[in-house]
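Supplementary Methods. Inverse-folding protocol.

Structures were first reduced to a discrete structure-token string of length 200. This string, shown here, constituted the complete conditioning input.
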């Protein structure tokens, strides 16, 4: 990694660290946490919104990568799809991040677009392996159609988390209202139960 890329990565990591510590985020606090000069920030970002967005995307991509490794031994690709959406809801439950994302919905949508290929790959594998009777390309087509709507309903899931509701309850409410893979209701419920049992 080039020095310039390392510096930019340090600034993004500093934002994530400050959020986890519950500290105020400013150009000065980011530069201090990253151990870089104050002016370095403006070589890579025009404002705080840009570095926030970069941090959100960085976290989403990192979690997607970790999830793929964590579920490597999981035989059901359909379970991976369902569980992945639970993680997506649980991921940004921190009040500061949730409020920022509600005010900047396009930023989280950019992050989800970058992680969508992994989810689509899991679904395609499930179709190849014929994990469920009748599972086919129509389910994939339906999911691709549903994805943009799922992205935008995310704002409401964040509001529900801010009300103090548990991630699993918000997830189940969303998934029970949107059969995003267009599976038979009984099959859809089966995977929701598997996710709920998995996180207990």
């Amino acid at each position: 990694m080039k020095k310039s890329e390392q510096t930019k990565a340090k600034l993004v990591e500093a934002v994530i660290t400050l959020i986890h510590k519950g500290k105020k985020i400013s150009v000065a606090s980011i530069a201090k946490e990253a151990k870089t000069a104050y002016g370095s920030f403006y070589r890579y970002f025009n404002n705080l919104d840009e570095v926030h967005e970069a941090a959100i995307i960085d976290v989403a991509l990192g979690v997607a990568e970790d999830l793929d490794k964590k579920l490597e031994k999981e035989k059901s690709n359909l379970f991976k799809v369902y569980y992945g959406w639970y993680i997506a809801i649980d991921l940004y439950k921190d009040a500061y991040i949730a409020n920022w994302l509600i005010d900047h919905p396009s930023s989280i949508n950019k992050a989800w677009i970058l992680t969508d290929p992994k989810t689509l790959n899991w679904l395609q594998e499930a179709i190849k392996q014929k994990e469920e009777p009748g599972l086919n390309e129509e389910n994939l087509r339906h999911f691709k159609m549903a994805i943009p709507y799922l992205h935008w309903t995310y704002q409401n899931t964040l509001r529900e988390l801010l009300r103090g509701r548990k991630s699993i309850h918000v997830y189940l409410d969303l998934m029970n209202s949107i059969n995003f893979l267009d599976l038979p209701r009984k099959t859809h419920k089966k995977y929701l139960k598997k996710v709920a049992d998995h996180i207990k």
